[in-house]
Amino acid sequence: MESPTQFEEECLAEHNRIRAIHGAPPLVLDRNLSDFAEEWAKVLLQKNTMEHREGHNYGENIYMASGKDVDGTIPVQAWYKEIKDYNFKKALFSPNTGHFTQLVWKNTTKLGVGRARSCLSSKCSDQENFESARAIAFSEPPMLQLSQAKAIAISEPQIPELFFENECLAEHNRLRARHGCPPLQLNYGLCRFAGEWAQYLADHNEFRHRPNNQFGENLYWASGSNVTGEDVVDNWYNEIKFYDFDHPGFSEKTGHFTQVVWKSSRRLGVAIARRGSSTWVVANYDPPGNYSGQFKDNVPRPRF
């Protein structure tokens, strides 16, 4: 049997990491499904379009990017970001959340992944998704049964900390892609490391960098507990308005931004801690950024 590609394994691992947050069982790769998905990915590339394949009984998520080297985690994180628009109380299908619901659908057991350059088609079996308005409906079960089933099949995140980590990672990588910088990988050793310092800051009601730290570090504090990963990373990234790309270098006004997009950084650890109505967030980066003399190569101008 043909061995899975690195891209397939990355997609599978990211699917299962996210599914675990929702208490959904892990998927397994299916070679036939992957071949089926790759066929359609090549068709989409040739036609230069984005459309769902007709005449099959599988779930389908599609992703397109402008770069050739799309890491396997990137499309999965893009699909998962739709969670922000999903209403767990109503538990109904929406065109704005269909990628997310397919990703964490509890009854799905198999995954097939196909890629053609910058275009990816991912198909899952043993599931149902319906949307008659766009002619991508699958006939079984009926809509009434589907609405009842979704209340059971989609669970709210059971590990809020992991959801926050994933949000931070996804927003980092979305913004890094804007600058042509490679995606970060979440490192759980770094997350534990960041968590130790975040909890220390909360316990002592302080806000300062960790001494003798071998990693890059961004800190965030807010009054309030409803802080999202996207809020935090966007706050750091917004320092871009003070950065002078014509004269690259370090500034205290832009240090968070430059670390977020630092091209040579590869791994991310992030943690959140709360005390009363205050929230602390610590992010660590490996290798660290903000090295003197390296800003021109590591902080590119945004491409779009």
Automatic annotation (TrEMBL):
PROSITE patterns: CRISP_1. SUPFAM superfamilies: PR-1-like. It comes from the Eukaryota. Keywords: Secreted. GO terms for cellular component: extracellular region. The keyword Secreted applies. It is found in: Secreted. Residues 6-132, 163-293 form the SCP domain. This is SCP domain-containing protein. Pfam families: CAP.
